[in-house]
Design goal:
heterodimer; A: about 130 residues; Rieske Iron-sulfur Protein; 2 domains; 4-stranded antiparallel beta sheet; B: about 900 residues; alpha+beta; Cytochrome Bc1 Complex, Chain C; 40 helices; elongated
Chain lengths: ~130, ~900
């Protein structure tokens, strides 16, 4: 009986420490991570440039429409930083997307993440929410 | 058995060596922490490589000790498995050791990430994404491992503390050793000392588009390349760790199976690593050794230099140089006072390496100039210099679609004329030239003029220049640079030219175009008013009416283009999309050309675009050339709706500003005769407004196996060559023909471009290859524009214009009947019984292979009759008479009310 209680105490203690560590870990990382993931940035905007590469975003102006995509390849997150013959090309594993963000060559199979963006009244700036 | 004895003798499983290496990892890591700046990792590493050889040496020491620690740790593991029938570790220890394998890799990877270069940035993204995809705790693990985006703090902490401490603990726990043996220590030290001196640890130059992980990761990168769901690779890692654990703890079949599986997987991984290292390049595309740019795309990771403890410059000198693209570039220490650049190419902004390559992290001249491009911008290196992702990638991708680079039209027409292909419209390129008669003919006589022909010597673009990639147009030697370069050519020890760099800019003049375009259709020379003669240079009269080009070609003045008279240059009409390609491959130049006369000389309202709507390239060029163009309404081309950035429309007037000299002109509308009625609606502007065009007839081509010729593709002499025997050169009003497209029929100027014979028998060595005779006219844009159009009679009463060739065309009235009569100047050819310079017979026509285009044809008999009908009127009536003017509006009406004295031609010839 006595033995059982001690074991239970140790088990509970270990679980408590574990939970405490998880709580602490969560406070140190996830919350921070969550806040960081809420991004809203304003950049200079040129509606006449077909493809603009910013660090995290790709702005595509085509057929009078502006779309903002994540510059991170949906395969493994590499930063896409170049366009070749109307295709957005990932340098790490060669995935290619069309200017609608749809993959046309693997390994990526998911389209690029699309973000909401608003263009300032004077047309000189773009505000991207991600 | 032999192996076992060897092991007994050696008495090592490489663990001791791994321990010694680990000690050096720790020691060198602590030392490296002094110069390393975690806030600017790439900058701090590049600075230590180029400025601080001892810091660079320590970095190499850290790098090589860690790489060999990984290798010997794995060998240690392998050796244990190989030597012992069972490991039999306790579960706790086995678990920690198995986990240790993963931790060693993570310690290595975090070290790789701490370079902060292009490779590291992408590797970090991959690691983050993979961690993120671990079920349930993915986000937590990813953030805990890599920290905030853009910050290297947590990675650094894990690298120097978390993982290192863990590795230290498991080493000590399982080996019970703190210190390596003195012998191992010394041996490892010596090995590392030499390696660290000879081979600098890798650092990406951030321009090369090839992105790879560390050598032990490229096999994994290859696996990831094949996985659309890369998260499955995590299962593979888990499976491998499980196999290690089972091998460490289990006995019998389970252990045997695990060991064998590990062995097989290791073998497979080694193969994948070799593939990743030696067969993958830009965008992870497969590259074979020997492929062009293989060295650049694949082997660049192996580019490494020894440490130079006595650099060619002091630390102070390097500190005074600017930071370029986030790093220190040692080129700027020596080349620190160069002038002549436009702002966007200032080396303080883009450095030297961006264009010239070499080694930006070198510490002496020899290292710096290794693999350097003295002349960047040639098409074979344009993607690595002018076209890198940060500069002009879209343009260098487009240029190969330009006919100036691929020469598709020239090649296809030549093959068509030689009877090697059925159509002159096949799209091809210089690299597809083979060894047929036509292709060898092109190599011997034509294809020096393409952008892909490399510029191999420094110096300005002259009338003798051919090709040169981007430099063909964008290289300008300003007077200072030219003077310094000329001085260096005379006295090679004079190095002042290094301070006077040639300008790479938008300052493209007609002289840049002249070298190539003074050949073939000769539009450059024609534009300036010069027509080529067959005169011997030594006999050239000392007169301003004659001009010597390239030392041997004698030209005679025949009248300049009205735009040249106004000092307009080629680029004042032709824009970047025409010259550098617009991404579409065209069969012929007229398809690629975009600007037409009517774009500037229009009647009514023009098509306009506001400056704020310019595409990015046009907007940049407009800003660089003209500053602020805000508010301008610019003309656009009818053909492809491209903006003409040096024009604007204001108060019902169109203006043009010359791009280089900034002269402004108000542009004139077409004359009334051009637009009056519908009589000339199908006549192109150049059909009337071309003052003259160069012609050549009676040309003969044959192959001479003994002729010392020149191969323009390889730029080398060769025995055996095609030889061209030219006939007669003339400058005269162009003939006219019809271009028939799906949208319209248009009267255009044509010239007897290819009335020639070809003797292939010596080339093919086949007797049945009889002499080829061609009578082909070619469409031409003469570039000899006159303000006033040619006279009515010069078309309607002119045998040359109609395609009959030169001679006398007479309208006679005999017995109340009007008859046209033609007496040719040249005798009939033995090949086809037509006058030497004719396109068609008098009041006849030809079909089939008649021109160098499939859509350009001579006038039909009916069309000739229509033209000659007006010609008959012009024999009596003055072109400016009222009746002739009225005829432009309604010719049929004028015919109906004609006087009985007016006798029309009778086409029913006897």
């Amino acid at each position: 009986m006595e033995k059982h209680s001690r074991r239970k105490f140790l088990q509970l203690g270990a679980a408590g420490i574990g939970l405490g560590m998880a709580f602490l870990w969560d406070k140190l990382t996830l919350r921070n991570n969550h806040i960081l993931s809420q991004k809203q940035h304003t950049f200079p905007f040129n509606k006449n440039k077909e493809v603009t590469f910013l660090h995290d975003y790709i702005i595509v102006n085509k057929d009078g429409k502006t779309e903002v995509f994540s510059s991170h390849c949906t395969h493994l997150g590499c930063v896409i930083n170049k366009e070749e013959n109307g295709r957005l090309v990932c340098p790490c594993h060669g995935s290619r997307y069309n200017l609608e963000g749809v993959p046309v060559k693997g390994p990526a199979y998911k389209p690029l993440e699309k973000f909401t963006a608003t263009i300032s009244k004077d047309g000189d700036h773009i505000n991207i929410k991600s | 058995m032999k192996t076992d004895n060897w092991h007994l003798k050696l008495k090592t499983t490489y663990g001791a060596l791994a321990l010694a290496l680990f000690s050096f990892v720790i020691i060198s890591g602590i030392l490296l922490a002094i110069p390393f700046n975690v806030e600017k990792p790439y900058n701090s590493i590049s600075t230590m490589v180029v400025m601080n050889p001892w810091a660079s040496y320590i970095r190499n020491f850290h790098y090589w000790s860690s790489q060999f620690f990984l290798i010997f740790s794995l060998l240690h593991l392998y050796d244990h498995y190989h030597k012992k029938s069972q490991i039999g570790l306790k579960k706790g220890m086995a678990f920690r050791l198995s986990l240790g394998v993963l931790i060693i890799f993570l310690a290595m990877l975090t070290g790789f990430l701490l370079k902060g270069d292009a490779d590291s940035i992408q590797a970090r993204q991959i690691l983050f994404t993979l961690s993120e995809r671990i079920p349930l705790f993915g986000n937590l693990i990813a953030f805990s491992l890599l920290g905030k985006e853009g910050s290297y703090q947590l990675i650094y902490v894990h690298h120097i503390a978390t993982f290192t401490v863990f590795i230290a603990i498991i080493i000590i726990e399982h080996s019970k050793k703190f210190w390596p043996k003195a012998g191992d220590f010394v041996m490892v030290f010596l090995g590392l000392a030499v390696l660290s001196y000879l081979f600098t640890a890798p650092l990406h130059d951030n321009l090369n588009p090839s992105v790879k992980g560390p050598w032990y990761f490229v096999g994994f990168q290859e696996i990831l390349h094949w996985l659309s769901h890369p998260e499955w690779s995590l299962m593979l890692i888990l499976f491998l760790l499980l196999l290690v654990y089972i091998t460490n703890t289990e006995k019998g079949k389970a252990m045997f199976f695990s060991k064998r599986t590990l062995l097989v997987l290791t073998g497979v991984y080694l193969i994948l690593t070799l593939i990743g290292l030696f067969f993958r390049g830009e965008n992870w595309q497969w590259e074979n050794p020997g492929q062009s740019n293989y060295n650049y795309n694949v082997l660049s990771n192996f580019k490494t230099e020894r440490v130079d403890f006595f650099p060619d410059f002091t630390q102070k000198q390097l500190l005074e140089t600017p930071t370029v693209l986030g790093r220190k570039e040692s080129c700027l220490v020596c080349h620190n006072n160069a002038h002549g650049f436009v702002q966007s190419h200032n080396p303080e902004t883009i450095g030297c390496f961006s264009c010239h390559g070499g080694n930006p992290f070198a510490t002496d001249k020899e290292q710096a100039h290794h693999n350097m491009r003295l002349i960047p911008g040639n098409m074979d290196n344009a993607a690595q210099s002018c076209g890198t992702a940060q500069c002009h990638p879209n343009i260098t991708q487009r240029v190969p679609t330009s006919l100036m680079d691929n020469l598709s039209g020239m090649i296809s027409v030549d093959r068509y004329v030689f009877g090697e292909q059925d159509s002159p419209n096949t799209i091809t390129e210089v690299s597809q030239l083979g060894h047929s008669a036509a292709d060898e003919h092109l190599k011997n006589l034509c294809i020096r003029c393409h952008l892909g022909n490399p510029k191999t010597e420094t110096g300005p673009v002259t009338e003798a220049s051919r090709g040169g990639g981007c430099l063909a147009c964008h290289l300008t030697y300003q007077p200072n640079a030219l003077h310094a370069w000329e001085k260096h050519k005379k006295i090679s020890s004079d190095t002042a030219y290094l301070q006077q760099h040639a300008e790479i800019s938008l300052n493209v003049t007609s002289n840049h175009c002249f070298g190539c375009h003074s050949r073939s259709a000769r539009i450059s020379t024609s534009y300036e008013g010069w027509t080529e003669t067959l005169m011997d240079a030594k006999k050239m009269p000392d007169s301003s009416n004659y001009r010597l080009i390239e030392g041997s070609r004698v030209f005679k003045y025949a009248g300049q283009d009205v735009h040249h008279k106004l000092r307009m240059e080629c680029i004042d009409c032709h824009n970047s999309y025409e010259l550098m390609g617009d991404g579409t491959r065209y069969a012929h130049e007229e398809d690629q050309e975009n600007v037409q006369c009517i774009d500037c000389h229009f009647s009514g309202k023009p098509d306009l675009t506001a400056a704020k709507n310019l595409d990015d390239e046009s907007a940049k060029i407009a800003a660089l050339r003209f500053g602020n163009v805000e508010g301008r309404e610019m003309l656009t081309t009818h053909k492809k709706n491209h903006p003409l950035i040096n024009t604007w429309y204001k108060d019902d007037t169109a203006f043009l500003i010359t791009k280089n000299t900034k002269k402004v002109f108000a542009m004139k509308a077409p004359a009334a005769v051009c637009t009056r009625g519908e009589a000339h609606k199908d006549v192109s502007c150049s059909a009337c407004h071309s003052g003259w065009a160069p012609t050549c007839i009676g040309c003969h081509n044959s192959y001479d196996p003994n002729e010392e010729g020149y191969n323009m593709l390889t730029n080398k002499m060769q025995k055996g060559s095609w030889v061209e025997y030219t006939g007669t050169y003339q400058a005269q009003l162009p003939s006219l023909g019809m271009r028939i497209t799906k949208d319209k029929k248009e009267v255009i100027p044509v010239i007897p471009g290819m009335i020639l014979s070809i003797d292939k028998s010596n080339f093919t060595k086949r007797k049945h290859d009889s002499l080829l005779f061609r009578r082909l006219f070619a469409p031409i844009a003469p570039h000899t524009t006159t303000a006033e159009g040619r006279s009515c009679k010069s078309c309607h009463n002119n045998p040359d214009a109609l395609g009959y060739g030169s001679g006398t065309l007479t309208y006679m009235i005999k017995g109340g009947k009007g008859i046209w009569k033609f007496d040719p100047y040249y005798a009939n050819s033995q090949h086809d019984n037509l006058p030497e310079d004719a396109w068609i017979g008098f009041l006849q026509t030809r079909t089939g292979m008649v021109s160098t285009r499939t859509n350009v044809k001579p006038f039909t008999v009916k069309e000739q009759q229509k033209i000659l009908l007006v010609g008959a009127c012009l024999t009596c009536h003055n072109a400016n008479s009222k009746v002739m003017k009225e005829s432009l509006i309604d010719f049929q009406k004028v015919l109906k009310i004609r006087s009985p004295k007016c006798i029309l031609p009778d086409w029913h010839r006897e």
